[in-house]
Amino acid sequence: MVRLHPILPALLLALAPSLAFADDTPGCGKAVPSADIGSTRKLSIISSNANRTFYVHLPRDYESDDDYPVIIGFHGAPGIGPHFEADTRFSAPRWGDDKIMVYPDALGGIWATGMPGAVTTPVDQDLKFMSDLLDYLRNNYCVDNEKIYATGISNGGGFLNRIACDPVVGANFAAFAPDAGAYTGFEAGGNATCNPYKTPIPIISFHGTNDTTVPYNGRNGTIATPPIEYWLQGWIERNKCDNMTEVLFNGSAHHFTWTCDGVQGAMQHYRVEGMGHVWPSTEPNFSQVSSGGKPTVIEANDLILRFFDRWDVEDRGTSPSSGGVTTTRVGGPSATETGGNMGTTTGANPGATTTTAGGGNAAGRVEGGMWSLGVAALAAVLIGAGLV
Fold this sequence. Notes:
By secondary structure, the protein is α/β, with parallel strands linked by helices. It is built from 9 helices and 13 strands. It has helices at residues 7-20, 81-88, 93-96, 123-140, 155-165, 228-238, 286-291, 300-308, 374-384; strands spanning 40-47, 50-57, 68-74, 100-104, 143-153, 175-179, 193-194, 203-208, 241-249, 253-260, 263-272, 327-330, 355-356. Keywords: Carbohydrate metabolism, Hydrolase, Polysaccharide degradation, Secreted, Signal, Xylan degradation.
């Protein structure tokens, strides 16, 4: 009979708490000011010798001993974090009451894109900011490391795609959700590369066919963007997707879903007929009002949050739940400049490999019209969203 050394039971008992909470971040158990709970606070850190600002919204029931999912939301250009917070209403109780919402600011209002010239900060500098920001969040709040996600619009949507393509920074994130993404550098002949940390990378994306800022069919010029179907094809190939289906919502929102590397629904895209350069919402929001748009037939917040709930950083996700659909057909739109169809794989892809084009960085196009209503309109949306 094997006898345990007398000290072992006591040693195991002493180690039990640390073993049970091995995944806790240093911020777990750390007190936060009561005024910060249920509100949005502006903070800053030094990253790459620059002062970087961001906004953190804690849920109303935040407890320092409970770990929370984190969603980082990236504004469009030019912009600041509160623009995205106001437009999406992600901090409102019905969306953000069980998670930590974070809204970082880009230097000069434009996220790094790798565009020609010196329009933005270097891509590596903004990626380093993301690493430093995540370190700050983990050290000061109780973060669920398996449930960190990114979403964003336009220039911000493009930058989060740059994160998804980075094998180091991207490995902190479980899933991504760009809207109206500007993916300059990933057009045909572009100079961008993509080397994701795993296959598949879960992505749900949105784009309107009436978007004149980042056109669905792409744009040429100094700041080019790829056709959205071309960008999708890049992720279809590196995620090893096939078995595409299309579901039509209310006659105008085409929902494309792929099975990627055997994982059902790991990649999804909403093509919304007639939608402009806005955040998709069934209720009026800031981007819709400021651009003369109107509410859409889909609510991106609900779709994104349900999609995020399926994914952790280290696992391959759960089966998707069925939604309220109307019409289903197998197949999909023909690919633009791809030589193939979005619903099929175009060749063997033995893992997450580095590829040229088809990935994502932001175009950084000046979206002045989006914010043309100024501070008064922003305040009105903030009040309507219950944020002030």
